[in-house]
Amino acid sequence: MIRTDNRLRLSKEEQLSSTTENINHLTTVNSKNLNSNNKAATERSRSYSNGKLLLTGEYVVLDGALSLAIPTKYGQSLSIEPIEAPKLIWTSFDESGQVWFQDEFIIKQMVTSLTPKNDISDRLLQILNASKKLSPNFLNTDSGFKVTTTLDFPRHWGLGTSSTLLNNIAQWALIDAFQLLKQTFGGSGYDIACAQYNTPITYQLENSNPIIKQVVFNPPFIENLYFVHLNKKQNSRDGIKHYHDHKENSKSAIREINAITAQMTTCDTLNHFKTLMFQHETIISKLTKQTPVKNLLFNDFKGAIKSLGAWGGDFVLVASKENPTEYFKEKGFKTVVPYKEMAL
């Protein structure tokens, strides 16, 4: 069960309304029509899901901490086109229009006898087969589909190549993306929430159920916030394993992170926000026995730096009175994105 504030959960129609290429998108499931999945899938359609960044609560979001997350202006689309052959012809494009993944699957063999060509094919089959378990009528057809996915961000940015794909497939199969996540990758689910919402949210697990609330995050110092990429991608599953292997006294840490998240959403001065960033880094550092990124790489930086998501890669949040772009470029970190250019 997913609890949200009234009017906050976006419908599929709302998610797709800004997509100019949307063609006869998937309709809401009619529980009285057992063939609704097949009917929806016989038309060309396109879905889109937002990317994500977790501003607070990394790691501890898994254990119920209140976390602040934002959907990004970057995401991934999925288009399907019916074909006569009983197979899936899958092609994935990156942000520059280059093919980064391609494969074909005989639909009737997907569950029983297909041997994946590589790890990506294996993961994709896992999602498709889990979708079929959740909705047996999904892909229950004698024909097939040409499927095209398109990213509008570099894969190494870590904005949710997997979560946006999973949410798009859930829309195609007309199933709950959170249930699909549980059957496949696991994790807190905040990335799925970001895929579906077009504003900042707070996210919290209560008895394993997501509580999602839309919030306004537009502080007067928003021009002083930036995202800087660390030139490498961090594997979220590895980060989760590290957390579970090293966490101690997480209940106390969660209470502190809850308070920091609440303060960050209402903070109105840059100095206070920087203090909260430092406090957050200190708590997570002690909990996971990792060194804060500022201590590792940017000791001489005058502003505040906070890791986002699994520590060690992807983007960090930077708060600085002065534009820090030249500082980071001189250090070899050339991807510096102002907050307003990243956040949806």
UniProtKB/TrEMBL annotation:
It comes from the Bacteria. Signal peptide: none annotated. InterPro entries: GHMP_GYDIA-like, Ribosomal_Su5_D2-typ_SF, Ribsml_uS5_D2-typ_fold_subgr. One of its GO terms (molecular function) is kinase activity. Keywords: Kinase, Transferase. NCBIfam families: GHMP_GYDIA. This is GYDIA family GHMP kinase. It comes from Flaviramulus aquimarinus.
